[in-house]
Amino acid sequence: MSRIDPVEITGRLGTLRGLLHRPDAAAAAPVVVMLHGFTGQHVEQDRLFVQAARVFAQAGLAVLRFDFYGSGDSDGDFEEFTVQTELDDAVTALDWISAQPGIDPARLGVLGLSLGGCVASLLAGQDPRVKALVLWNAVSIPSLHFGEIPTEGPDALILGGQRISIEFLSDFYGLDVTGTLQNYAGPGLVVRGTADDVVPLPEAEALAATLGDRGELFLVKDAGHTFQHPDWRALVFQKSTDWLCAHLGGSA
Question: What does CATH list as the number for 3-248?
Fold first, then answer.
């Protein structure tokens, strides 16, 4: 049975809060850092990240899931974040988890959902500590997103009850996700729900093409953006666990 510890991590802009799952193992464990999506948090929709972390820990992987600055229980307001602040938070999370007892920093993987997958791709392309990458319905083509958000008037820069900043949009549209990912030399699993209406199929195809023979595109038939059916989640969790254990070690 894994142990779950609350954590506080000192980030560049404020305190990041989350949970660390530790597997029941005597040896130093490989670890997966989970990065949530836009307006998400360390639990994710319908407890997606909770369920996944439990499966990973059962397979011998430590798991860190935390809230980016401005999201969930972490410090800051939502309109203060940009993709760059999330990337900075992800680097800080890698620094923190690498220094923890019972963790093998040489076996570190990153999993990202949606916008968190965008951040994970950028992170893998710039940080050689990332040894395995898993992308769930990940954003990779910025021009396909946020075009419906007005930038002027009373509803300017408001989406889903949250206000975003013009700095976020400017930063986001300036990203070269696949170009940065080209610098990553490790293995990558791209998971795509075929009925995802948030992130279009070309984004998964672009990520898979960038990874080439180091990657795999895994399609989950009829699944939506957060795999909202137990059968779809079972498929995603098993595939992701097998992939992570194959490249980081574990008991799967």
Answer: 3.40.50.1820
